[in-house]
Write a structure and sequence with these properties.
Length: about 375
């Protein structure tokens, strides 16, 4: 096989200094493929964060969260349509704190700041009116949708171990939500079960054996409600940071054929307020360190053989909204492009960038919807 590459930026940069150099044709003979990405490898997220979400004395989310985003802007619509189609994952840290206002759920509160709440917020709610608006938007823009489900519903936080949530997952609210979604004819490509609950967790965690049992319940629910296999959404999990023992345990408990895709999160640049952020991004040896995570996930996939392989279902580079001085600049592309390339070589099928809009790492400006440099990347 032959691959044709066009190095336009490099040619432009070298033209002045090497104007007398001889032209050279480079042909790469691809003897064999080492990995294959999904047709919709490029993916972005839409997050639940409200305007009150603040980190490092700044509040960069504005009205970019799922519940507040103005879906009528032409610039937003066109930015999504340009990918034809674009995979979008609706989810994020607060997804395990969202109730769906359907059937028996009567009240629909907004997220409110609460010191003892998950990630500092009270429970929030997705009304079916907003779900209708979102689906009209997704249909209009041709989005391929992955939806992150609340995997903490019905559980309680342990009284003896901080951050550990115990008890069985209660699927009734999700059942009602799926039934409504089906009745409206809304298309969901895949459901991801929880966010950042694996291993040591982020804000909350669930025991690997318990998670494995609960994901079986979710899989059976999907198979029951979506009767036709060809239209049946895939089940993804765990949507968290990779820890070898936890990942192996949950997959041993759930067994083969339950989790269709193994999802992990990558934030290898550390906290967004790190003053050395630029140095990290420009240091190939630092960027290469995360290859051990990719290899670990790849080893688990080779062992348990989930149908859809491995996905990076969330990656924003820097934690807590990204870096205000770096994430929205051209320099961030050295991290972003490197990560997509590395993920591909380790057979990660999908790479979801946090976020399409919102925080400092949004691909679009949160108020003007003008693309930041990484959008073009």
């Amino acid at each position: 096989m032959y691959f044709k590459f066009t190095f336009c930026p490099i040619i432009l940069l070298l033209w002045a200094s090497l104007s007398f150099a001889q032209n050279v044709n480079v042909v790469i003979h691809g003897a064999a493929s080492i990995a294959k990405t999904d047709d919709n490898f490029v993916c972005v997220t839409l997050d639940w964060w409200p305007a009150e979400k603040c980190d490092y004395n700044q509040s960069p989310w504005g009205k970019a969260g799922i519940l507040n985003l103005d879906l009528r802007y032409g610039a937003l619509i066109n930015a999504i349509k340009a990918f034809n189609p674009l995979r979008i994952k609706v989810g994020g840290s607060l997804q395990d704190n969202v109730v769906y206002k359907v059937e028996e759920v009567s009240s629909c509160p907004n997220f409110m700041k609460r010191e003892d709440g998950l990630f500092g917020f009270s429970q929030g709610c997705l009304s079916m009116e907003r779900w209708d608006q979102l689906n009209r938007f997704f249909n209009h823009t041709g989005v391929k949708l992955t939806f992150g489900l609340n995997a903490l519903f019905g559980r309680n936080e342990s009284q003896t171990e901080k951050g550990l949530w115990i008890g069985d997952w209660q699927p009734q609210n999700t059942r009602d939500f799926m039934q409504y979604t089906i009745s409206k004819g809304y298309k969901v490509d895949s459901y991801e079960f929880g966010s950042q609950l694996s291993g040591s967790g982020m804000g909350a965690k669930v025991d690997a054996k318990q998670y494995g049992k609960d994901v079986i319940v979710l899989k059976n629910l999907v198979k029951e409600l979506y009767a036709h296999p060809e239209t049946q959404p895939k089940v993804l999990g765990p949507g968290g940071f990779y820890e070898e023992k936890w990942f192996n345990t949950f997959l041993e408990v759930s067994g083969q054929g339950i989790v269709d895709g193994l999802t992990d999160h990558i934030y290898n640049l550390g906290p967004g307020d790190d003053p050395n952020m630029m140095n990290k991004i420009l240091d190939p040896s630092y960027l290469n360190q995360v290859s051990q995570t990719y290899k670990g996930v790849s080893d688990v996939v080779n062992k348990f053989r989930p149908q859809l392989g491995a996905w990076v279902s969330e990656s924003g580079g820097a934690l807590n909204g990204g870096s205000k001085d770096v994430s929205r600049t051209f320099a961030d592309g050295f991290w972003y492009l490197d990560q997509m390339g590395m993920a591909s070589t380790y057979d990660q099928k999908v790479f979801c960038r946090q976020a399409l809009i919102g925080g400092n790492y949004g691909l679009l400006n949160a108020t003007t919807f003008v693309p930041n440099p990484d959008y073009y990347g």
